[in-house]
Write a structure and sequence with these properties.
Length: 199
Amino acid sequence: MTATHAAPGDPIELVALGDSLTAGYRLPSDAAFPTVLERLLKAKGADVTVANAGVSGDTATGGLDRVDWSVPDGTAGVILELGANDMLRGTDPKVTEGALAAIIERLKARGIPVLLTGMQAAPNLGPDYKARFDAIFPNLAERYDLILYPFFLDGIIGDRAQHLDDGLHPNRQGVETIATRILPTVETFLGGLREGASR
């Protein structure tokens, strides 16, 4: 099974595959990360759609279980955002890394490039766990030659004004910050997709 890349003139179809941070937990659909990112990209002149394949509570293993049907044929690229729930549950980083690697390999086999977004473990999990967990994402990016956005929550950590009252999930403003921060990396990713499609 291979991706059918968009014909010239058709919008580039991206899929954001993730957990509640992608899904837009407790937010209206127009405030979810994929919708906000799509709006920002279109404002910069990109003809792109970003489908929301976020499922609240999903782990990396959960994402692997559904990757085949969550990412339809015709998808030009995937923004992969998983791992936060693994960290919150204290899952062995080897398990998380293995599941993410399998997702990347499944997509690679279908000819679908991946932009990997990183996550960082909370300090209260201890220095050993944090070191092992935080290393998952740069390790995978190097192994599979992926574009890596190092930390999905960059710009909002520690800022109550950008979180819901649970202190974990971004509010509308927090999502705007996340999408704005990741935008240049996504634009680089799109540039690579266009280059690949024109070959």
